[in-house]
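Re: the 611-residue chain
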Amino acid sequence: MPKLKEAVKTKSSYRSLLQVQTDEQNTHWFQVVLSDVILAEGSVQVGAIQDISKVQHIETKLTVADKIISEVQEGILVCDDTGKIIKANDALLIMLERKRDEVLSKDILSIFPSDRKNDVKPDFLMDGKQTELSIVSKDKQRRYLMMSVATLYQDSPKQFHVAILTDITKLKTSEKQLKYLAFTDALTGAGNRNYLNNIVERYTESLAPCAIVFIDIDEFKLINDSHGHEVGDQILKACVSRLRSIIREDDYIIRFGGDEFIIITTSTLDSELESITNRLKGIFSTHFKTTVGDFKVTASIGVAVSSGSMSAGNLLKNADIAMYSAKQVGKNNVVTFDESLSKDIEYRLFIQQGLNHAISSREISAYFQPIVDAQGHVISLEALARWHVPSHGTISPDKFIPIAERTQQIHEIGLHMLEEVCIALKTLKSCGFDNIKINLNMSAVQLQKSSVVEAFTDMLLAHKIDTCDVVLEITESTLQNYRARATLTKLKKMGFKISIDDFGTGFSCISELADDIYDAIKIDRSLLPTFPLDNNSATRRSIIIENVIKLCNSLEMPCTLEGLETHEQVHFAKSIGVSAMQGYHFAKPLNLVGLMEYLQSCQKVSAVTER
């Protein structure tokens, strides 16, 4: 300590800081001060040694803290109790893209202003509070910060607030991407079911009025089956693009299922909804272009409006019921929900739930309607499915067959009907009616099932029935599906006869008669004229039927005219050369017992006539 010795010797002032290591863990700091006091007779030297260890330890900690604050990546600022910023580290300045003098002494609210002028000013400076903030960078990109606040000296009159700010922009971006994926249909970019639930519940919880427009593309499965899902996907994407072009900004588009879409709108007035559905019909008025060609697409549309405290589920259910009703009345239609439709859907549900039991308990059975030649001899029978519920009565095939097709239960019904046809053929042969064939109706849904050929083969082998004794009746719409057509070709090669049912309606086309897959046709009753032929429409119908019959006769293709109920209709059929007739004029559909009685009575009449 040379300097101290020199100061003592020369009696000059001296100030120094001494560090004394008392042991391995403890260090003490002493401040040594010498001062000279000059008196008249000479000088006096005064010295003092003060232990300043506590103060020195605090300064050391503050120095270390300052070093840490300057080095950390998080932004840190310190405010006094008025909100004035008194300290900010470099990381914060970089986040804010500001200089130090642009931050220090400024109020914190001027650094992080509210987004809108009328927003209530936030109280950031609360101990333990976390606040999500956003700022706009110089390149116009929005960045997100999370600010956590700790208050120092809470019990003293003067408080300080330390705020730590973390850049969470990447996290927010990831959250947005995850939210987008969670709420967006990957194929079309429309909202998905999660988004639908979110939106509808938001409306219904707030009791805000809204409406759902449920859109289902008609016969879309035919496009997928015939041309592949890639072509179908192109049409679905185009649908969403067209939907976006006709809705308002605050309406929502949801892809509900494969070919089902939903629009959620705040438009609830009849006139507004009619305008929306008219625009919807308009977007389906032009063909959809794909890589394999253009397609004419139609849609069935159901509309439902929320009321009172209706739940999201009920609103969606009502729209679905309305859409289904639009399909039931012929597709390419718009139906608005009312309570009467709800009763229809309950009846549909009753049928759907009851079909399984009906098949297993054999409540569904085959009835047979005779088909006769021009002389009145029975040449074949049409097997018709009839369902009688003991507690409810008879359910029309028009009601349960479409539902059975939609639920795939038509396969079990079809095999059950084939079994009853086999039993009927064995009964006919045992009673001497060897030449009577039985017509069995098949739907496109049945023919698309890969196992149908094997199932039919096994059934006929089990009952020892020849395939040539069974005529499969199909509608021409069935042949629009390539899988159904391929299956039908296999059945034809096995020996089954094929007849076109309901010729003259739907997809009927004269060119189909050139295909040798068909063995016969049946003209639909809707073409029958009224009698007498005293108006232009009736005359035109009679001419059409007569020329179709001539065409079939020239092709040596048997043709049945169905729906004959009056003497005039039968006389007309015979006069134009019909080879086979069917209708209530001859007999209603009969169960097997009734059929045998009918055939035996016809046999007796024939025997008497021959005598």
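DSSP finds 19 helices and 24 strands in the chain.
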